[in-house]
């Protein structure tokens, strides 16, 4: 694996990619000239020097504060509409520390992606830096360092995000110059999906995270780097990077539309462990459950999606108030709304109960849309799906000889697949409602009720059987595991053109029952208190 990673980053094309990308955009060169004359505020100089000092000391708590708070505060104050000092300029404030500069460059390009519009040259340079950074880590360079888990998660997450934006950028061909098109055509190794996956898998293998997880969160080797059986999972940086790379693979496979493989990579994770590593970073927690439940939705595992989304949204509701000042707050808020949309779709397809507080959020946000979806409005399904789905990518290169914008093709394909499932399910609720009213009824009468022919209604019954026989997991199982079960609220069979209903399952809404009787009890207590007050006043 390491050999493959090294091949993806050979020094020959590394040098050429940087030279050619700079030649592509003359304005980028002028920006570099402007950087040379840019006066770095003294407080920023001191911040970079202090940041590097604490990084070298391995002071994780202080580095965490500098990374999550100070860096964003300086960004708001000095670099709201401009980039941070070019790494070449910043080098003199950090004693030309090459290791620290690798991580500073990651922050530098991430800031450009979040606040500005990156040029082609900057996209290529960001890729170069990620390759340098991961190769440094994979070649044992970070054994003596320690970083906060939030930064390690953001490195992994941003790596995939920039790959995602590159795929969309590469498929927007209309407004690109011939020079840019020629460069893209000749440099297909840049942000290549195969190299991306190789880096993530290499990080998982290097960290030895899977044996660590299967061994009850304990290393299987020695913690001494000089021993032959040295286990990299004993080093927190490698352990977290390997763990986060597993969740990164989940995201990549969802973006590519391979949902079964996306769930399979989660096999080593223990979701019943309250101290699991994904709980250490809120953004990681939310990303894990968002992509996992989206994969459930696309695999038509609506019961699993409802079960996981219900508990996840309940947890987010409890911790959300603690992140109001965090730089992750907007992302958490957006993901929460997207997960509510996924829950709304899943509940329309699966008649299950969720916690009352989650149900309240759902009614407030998407109550009207859920009603319209139950009435069969296809446009609402499509609207919510487009809002809630990730930005799918196409891993293959476009046809550069036909400069057309194709960045939305992957999304159109996934939307088309989802809407085909919606159309197949439109008749299921109506069939269920009629079957719930009878113990036996002639097939032709049911067909008349639904204003269709007997032959078509037979296909509706088969569709009902098919769509209510689903693959479903349980809380103790891995996400990819489960078994086929019948979740139909009505059990029936057809006997000589007569539909015979054998059993009707009634839903037990215990929460609503107790809330209703608690309300009645409170009213009764109030009446008794009023009677006592009136009796004492008359005496």
TrEMBL record:
Give GO MF terms, alphabetically. translation initiation factor activity
Presence of keyword Protein biosynthesis: yes
Q: Which organism is it from?
A: Galdieria sulphuraria
Q: What is the lineage of its organism?
A: Eukaryota, Rhodophyta, Bangiophyceae, Galdieriales, Galdieriaceae
Q: Which UniProt keywords apply?
A: Cytoplasm, Initiation factor, Membrane, Protein biosynthesis, Transmembrane, Transmembrane helix
Q: What name is this protein filed under? A: Eukaryotic translation initiation factor 3 subunit L
Single GO cellular component term: eukaryotic 48S preinitiation complex
Instruction: Cite the residue spans of the region called Disordered.
Output: 1-26
* Chain segments annotated as transmembrane: 240-265, 277-299
What job does the chain carry out?
Component of the eukaryotic translation initiation factor 3 (eIF-3) complex, which is involved in protein synthesis of a specialized repertoire of mRNAs and, together with other initiation factors, stimulates binding of mRNA and methionyl-tRNAi to the 40S ribosome. The eIF-3 complex specifically targets and initiates translation of a subset of mRNAs involved in cell proliferation.
Q: Which locations, inside or outside the cell, does it occupy?
A: Cytoplasm
Superkingdom, natural source: Eukaryota
GO BP terms: namely: formation of cytoplasmic translation initiation complex
**Chief localization class?**
cytoplasm
Which InterPro entries is this protein grouped with? eIF3l
Subunit and partners: Component of the eukaryotic translation initiation factor 3 (eIF-3) complex.
């Amino acid at each position: 694996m390491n050999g493959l990673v090294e091949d993806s980053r050979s020094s020959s094309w590394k040098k050429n990619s940087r030279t050619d990308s700079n030649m592509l955009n003359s304005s980028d060169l002028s920006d570099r000239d402007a950087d040379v004359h840019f006066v770095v505020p003294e407080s920023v100089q001191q911040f970079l020097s202090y940041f590097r000092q604490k990084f070298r000391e391995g002071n994780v708590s202080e580095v965490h504060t500098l990374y999550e708070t100070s860096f964003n505060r300086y960004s708001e104050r000095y670099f709201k509409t401009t980039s941070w000092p070019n790494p070449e300029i910043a080098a003199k404030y950090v004693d030309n520390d090459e290791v620290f500069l690798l991580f500073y460059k990651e922050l530098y390009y991430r800031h450009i992606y979040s606040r500005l519009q990156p040029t082609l040259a900057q996209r290529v340079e960001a890729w170069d830096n990620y390759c340098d950074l991961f190769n440094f880590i994979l070649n044992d360079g970070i054994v003596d360092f320690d970083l906060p888990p939030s930064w390690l998660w953001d490195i992994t997450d941003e790596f995939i995000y920039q790959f995602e934006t590159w795929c969309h950028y590469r498929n927007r061909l209309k407004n690109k110059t011939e020079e840019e098109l020629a460069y893209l055509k000749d440099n297909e190794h840049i942000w290549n999906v195969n190299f991306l996956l190789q880096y993530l898998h290499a990080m998982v293998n290097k960290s030895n995270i899977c044996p660590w997880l299967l061994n009850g969160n304990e290393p299987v080797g020695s913690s001494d780097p000089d021993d032959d059986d040295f286990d990299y999972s004993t080093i927190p940086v490698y352990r977290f990077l390997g763990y986060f790379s597993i969740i990164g693979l989940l995201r990549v496979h969802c973006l590519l539309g391979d949902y079964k493989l996306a769930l399979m990579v989660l096999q080593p994770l223990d979701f019943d462990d309250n101290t699991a590593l994904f709980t250490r970073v809120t953004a990681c927690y939310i990303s894990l459950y968002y992509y996992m439940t989206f994969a459930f939705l696309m695999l038509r595992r609506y019961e699993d999606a409802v079960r996981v989304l219900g508990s996840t949204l309940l947890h987010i509701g409890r911790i959300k108030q603690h992140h109001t000042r965090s730089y992750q707050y907007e992302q958490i808020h957006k993901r929460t709304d997207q997960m509510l949309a996924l829950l709304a779709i899943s509940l329309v397809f699966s008649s299950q109960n969720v916690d009352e507080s989650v149900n309240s959020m759902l009614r407030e946000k998407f109550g009207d849309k859920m009603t319209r979806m139950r009435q069969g409005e296809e446009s609402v399904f499509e609207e919510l799906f487009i809002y809630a789905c990730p930005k799918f990518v196409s891993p293959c290169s476009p046809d550069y000889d036909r400069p057309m914008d194709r960045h939305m093709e992957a999304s159109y394909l996934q939307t088309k697949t989802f809407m085909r499932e919606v159309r197949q399910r439109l008749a299921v609720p109506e069939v269920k409602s009629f079957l719930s009213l009878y113990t036996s009824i002639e097939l032709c009468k049911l067909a008349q009720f639904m204003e269709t022919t007997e032959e078509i209604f037979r296909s509706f019954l088969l569709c009902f059987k098919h769509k209510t026989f689903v693959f479903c997991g349980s809380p103790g199982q891995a996400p990819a595991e489960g078994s086929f079960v019948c979740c139909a609220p009505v059990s029936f069979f057809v006997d000589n053109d007569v539909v015979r209903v054998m059993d009707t399952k009634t839903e037990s809404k215990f929460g609503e029952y107790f809330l209703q009787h608690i309300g009645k009890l409170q009213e009764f207590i109030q009446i008794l208190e009023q009677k006592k007050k009136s009796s004492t006043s008359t005496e």
